[in-house]
Amino acid sequence: VDENFISNTSLILITGKDFSINPSQNVRSIIVNEEFVKRFNLKDPRTALGKPVALTDSNVYTIEGVLKDFHFSGLKEAIQPFFLESNPGKFRYANLKLASSDPVGSLSAMESLWKKIGGESKFSGQLPSEEIWEVYSSYKTIMKLWSFVGSLAITVAWLGLLGTFSQPLLR
């Protein structure tokens, strides 16, 4: 991530500092979440600052900041330890904050610009609301199914009541 990611995504930096605009100052620096601090037994966020941490790539990183815990996977999942690293060599996505009142039009404009500068590579842009909709659309399908089952159960119950009350009238 770059120095704008935390502010663009409205994450809360509870202690420490954000990444620098100067990439050379971010080498081997990470920003972690509160769960990371707990899991690695670093006592509390303030004392975690400046501590070296060896990660799975065998490199040692320094904790520069601690973020308030946030869900980075499904809301049903428990919050896990997480860290952010600023390494321009690993950038694959752009996270942009739009100042436009027409986000869909802005995406179209970005796609037109991308065709000019991006060569043959495909432009793929998505608004956060669209991404959230994709992740949770299965819940809407489940809700429709349960609504149908509930309606069916109510209909059967009403038919049972109708049968119960109409039986004496038919005699």
Backbone shape? elongated
- Mean of pLDDT: 83
- Residue runs with pLDDT of under 50 for 5 or more positions: none
DSSP summary, beta strand count = 5
Classify the helix fraction into a percent range: 40-55%
What gyration radius follows from the Cα positions, in whole Å? 26 Å
Q: DSSP helix count? A: 5
Which structural class is indicated by helix and strand composition?
alpha+beta
**Main sheet characteristics:** 5 strands, mixed
Written account of the structure:
The protein has about 170 residues and is an alpha+beta fold. It is built from five helices and five strands. Strand 3 and strand 4 (about 60-65) form a beta hairpin. The termini are far apart. About 10% of the residues are buried. The mean pLDDT is about 85.
Structure, briefly:
This protein is of the alpha+beta class and 171 residues long.
Topology readout:
Layout: H1 5-8, E1 13-16, E2 29-33, H2 34-39, H3 45-48, E3 52-54, E4 60-67, E5 83-85, H4 103-117, H5 128-170
Parallel strand pairs: 2-4
Antiparallel strand pairs: 1-4, 2-5, 3-4
Keywords:
171 residues, alpha+beta, five-stranded mixed β-sheet, 5 helices, 5 strands, 42% helix
